[in-house]
């Protein structure tokens, strides 16, 4: 397994052979992704078309069905993955953390019940224990912690604004 969750390891540290990282479908700047991520997450029919000599990039745009694109123009869309993509699907059950099953719903329920979320601390503890497998579980191919932190903050803001609204 790679060092996906080591401190200082960012998506930009994934080796990339020179190519534009702009999604051919919507123009969003993408992040490089390792081949092992595609091999792990593409459905069989899509995997059969994978060019292992190409360099692939993840498109994070929520408005684009392309998940991966290559330096040769090949694309893979959401329907060609085994899992839904957090950035492209706002469904509450979609994982924010693919390794440890933290979904928006689980985070929301915990905050509603306890007033706080243990998601970030729990995932961080698993990372320190070298249990994460982001490169094979997360369509981004890198650590999900930033997604989880963002999700926690969004839910906390949403709940505090709705409780402020109901108090008026």
TrEMBL record:
Domain CopZ zinc binding as annotated: residue spans: 22-82
Pfam families: zf_CopZ
Superkingdom of origin organism: Bacteria
Coiled-coil segments: none
The protein's name: (2Fe-2S)-binding protein
Species this protein is from: Chroogloeocystis siderophila 5.2 s.c.1
Phylogenetic placement of the source organism: Bacteria, Bacillati, Cyanobacteriota, Cyanophyceae, Oscillatoriophycideae
């Amino acid at each position: 397994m790679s060092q996906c969750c080591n401190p200082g390891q960012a998506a930009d540290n994934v080796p990339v052979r020179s190519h534009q990282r702009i999604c051919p479908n919507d123009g969003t700047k993408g992040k490089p992704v390792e081949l092992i991520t595609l091999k792990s997450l593409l459905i069989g029919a899509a995997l059969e078309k994978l060019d292992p000599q190409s360099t692939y990039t993840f498109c994070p745009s929520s408005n684009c069905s392309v998940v991966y694109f290559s330096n040769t123009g090949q694309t893979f869309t959401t329907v060609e993955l085994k899992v839904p993509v957090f950035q492209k699907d706002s469904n509450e059950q979609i994982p924010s953390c693919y390794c440890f099953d933290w979904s928006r719903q689980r985070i929301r329920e915990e905050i509603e019940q306890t007033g706080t979320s243990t998601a970030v601390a729990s995932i961080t503890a698993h990372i320190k224990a070298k249990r994460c497998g982001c490169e094979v579980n997360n369509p981004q191919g890198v650590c999900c912690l930033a997604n989880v932190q963002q999700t926690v903050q969004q839910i906390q803001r949403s709940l505090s604004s709705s409780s402020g609204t109901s108090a008026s």
